[in-house]
Amino acid sequence: MDTAARAGETAQTLDRGLRLLHLVADAPGGMTVTEAANRLGIGRAAVYRLVGALTDHGMLRRDGDGRLRLGVGVLHLARRAQPLLAEGALPALRLLAEQAGATAHLTVVEGGEGVALAVVEPSWTSFHVAYRTGSRHPLERGAAGRAILAGRAGAAGPVSTSGELQSGAYGVAAPVLGVPGLEASVGVVSLTPLDVTEVGAQVSAAAESIAAALS
């Protein structure tokens, strides 16, 4: 086999391995080898070879029923990628915090919860909410989590809440859409009521800007 043929075979194997990872990631209950073979349009033997290599690198694992699931290696890569996500979002978050006069944040899904990945406080306000990077909360509570759930349902508009995570705090957030593999929202939190129309437009613009920066 010449060099070009070997390179083509390697690229095809890589493509199939990445497609397999995406298929398993999108299957909450896991996936059998037969299901994976049918979805990929290849034989079971080829899938077993892919699974073997990906399992060796911790990207896949087999559960007690033999179904394919993501491995801890994927979490390791995700954690390594988080600083890059935060860096890409910071310019839009800084602008949003200054415009709204409120603490701006990028929230991502991790382990079924919302996690504040990046936080920017406004520079000109006398008082603002202190929102710690790494703060976790259920997706069903707070504007950030509710915006992510809305994004799952295909809704792109801003979401507002009052006092759901902290008494006396107001939030407005919008989902970050169009970035493969990322579930996130951008929002602001304030100690005073927010003009949902005005701030909602600012939050939505920041979400679109961050989606463009990360795509």
List keywords for this structure.
215 residues; two-stranded antiparallel sheet; alpha+beta
How does the overall form come out from the CA principal axes?
elongated
Can you list the strand order of the major beta sheet?
Answer: 5-4-3-8-7-6
Q: Helix proportion of residues, in percent?
A: 40-55%
Uncertain regions spanning at least 5 consecutive residues? none
Beta-strand level of the residues, as a percent range? 15-25%
The count of helical stretches stands at: 6
Sheet with the most strands, sense and barrel status: 6 strands, antiparallel
Compute the separation of the termini in Å: 37 Å
Which class of secondary structure composition applies to the elements? alpha+beta
Mean pLDDT across all residues, rounded?
Answer: 92
Radius of gyration: 21 Å
Provide the succession of SSEs: HHHEEHEEEHEEEH
Number of strand segments: 8
